[in-house]
Amino acid sequence: MREYNFTGGMPDPGSFPIEGLIEAAGRALRAAGGDTLVHYPGDLGNITLREVAAMRFQASQGTEISPDDIAITNGSMQALELVFRAYVEPGDIVLTEELSYMGTLGLLRHSKANIVGVPNDEHGMNTDALEEILRDLAAKGQRPKLINTVPINHNPTGMNMTAERKRRFIELAEEYDVVILEDECYGDIYFEGDPAPSLYSQAPSGRVIYVATFSKTIGPGVRMGYLSVPQPVMGRIMANRHDGGPSALASLILAEFLRHHMWDHIRKTNGIVREKLATLLAALDENLGDMISCIPPTGGLFAWTTVPEDTDMGRLMAGLDERQVRCTRGQAFHVDQKDIPNVRFSFAYPSLQDIRDGVEVFADCVRAAQPSEAAVA
Ligand SMILES: Cc1ncc(COP(=O)(O)O)c(C=O)c1O
Predict the structure, then answer these.
(1) How far is the CA of 75 from the centre of ligand 1 (A)?
(2) Which of 89, 281, 318, 319 has the CB geometry, 3.0–4.6 Å to 365, for a possible disulfide?
(3) Is the pTM of this model over 0.90?
(4) Residue 292's pLDDT band (boundaries 50, 70, 90)?
(5) Do 255 and 314 have their domain in common?
(6) pLDDT confidence bin for 272, thresholds 50/70/90
(7) Dist. CA 185 → ligand 1 center (Å)
């Protein structure tokens, strides 16, 4: 049976730059010579890729960032893990959007953090709710260790935090003296408008730890991400790193490719992903019309859909599983694992035809999971 894969945050497989990387590999290895590659890369990782990450930040944010304030990691997941290792002891409070990336929630649960959800809406984390939570905690003499946020093209909702909210967010973090973990995993993938400048570029030094990745524009298989923060915070985080640093081989090849092709590649892949999103939205509309709602994302890889409130979510997911339509149940992203009537579609990976056909099957399953259908069955 055909499988329709709308699960993980993978880019379009056809746009993986195989030829570009092959050419970059030859140039990079000849230029580096063996001596670079017989050494351990060290905690911050290869300087050439750090310089490219700094260039990317400067080009997209208009703010300079020193390569010495950047550490390359094994995907951004390792960056998150290192930050939590440095900051979170069992029982510590960590705030995060009520709907959050399940990988981050998994790491926090593993650290035995006391995870507190802050409601998020179409403008990102709700800063009024954040203020109330911070005030209540302060009244009890408690202070969160971190506030985790994905302010741009949020996973799973696709939403963006407005510039005004970002300003307020920083004010609150300053007032209550809490460190922000800004996960800008999807920062380069947008189809319309410009996202508001990062929290990192606006906040006082050391208030924000910035995390980004090359997984979403090149591919998660490359396992290259990074975090950025000046000393002494960087030292505190790196004190927990014991892996000898990230692969210099992969770093050099990627850096050589990105140095010449980063923005062309991103422009090209964003065009492809935008078409896939349009196809998904059209298919949802055609097959389910008013039965389903989705605020169209302006970037990123995810469409967050809301099915009718009384949908039997267990039945829906079992139906999808049986017919090999792989989507992610909303519950997986809820801090308290609440069973909400939402399904996340990741739309960059499947082909246009799989999107059209997969949504048709999805629509059958949604209809079969309505209470009226259960009564008939
Ligand atoms: C918000 C967010 N952060 C981090 C990651 C981890 O990505 P990687 O480790 O591939 O960079 C993901 C992956 O889906 C994500 O959605």
Answers:
(1) 7
(2) 319
(3) yes
(4) very high
(5) no
(6) very high
(7) 6
Q: Are 357 and 364 in contact (CB under 8 A)?
A: no
Ligand 1 atom 14 nearest Cα:
9
- Domain boundary, last residue among 226, 242, 262: 262
Reported as a single tens digit per residue, the pLDDT across 35-83 is 889 999 999 999 999 999 999 999 998 899 999 999 999 999 999 999 9
pLDDT of 278 above 70: yes
Among the three residues 219, 235, 262, which one is the final residue of a domain in this structure?
A: 262
Nearest CA to ligand 1 atom 13: 9
Atom of ligand 1 nearest to the CA of 214: 11
Question: For the chain, how many structural domains are there in total?
Answer: 2
Q: What's the per-residue H, E or C state across 36-72?
A: HHCCCCCCCCCHHHHHHHHHHHHHHHCCCCCHHHEEE
| 183: β partners | 211
**C-alpha dihedral over 235, 237, 241, 246, to 10 degrees?**
-90
Q: Residue 223 CA: which ligand 1 atom is closest?
A: 10
Is 174 in the same domain as 309?
A: no
* Ligand 1 atom at minimal distance to the Cα of residue 154: 1
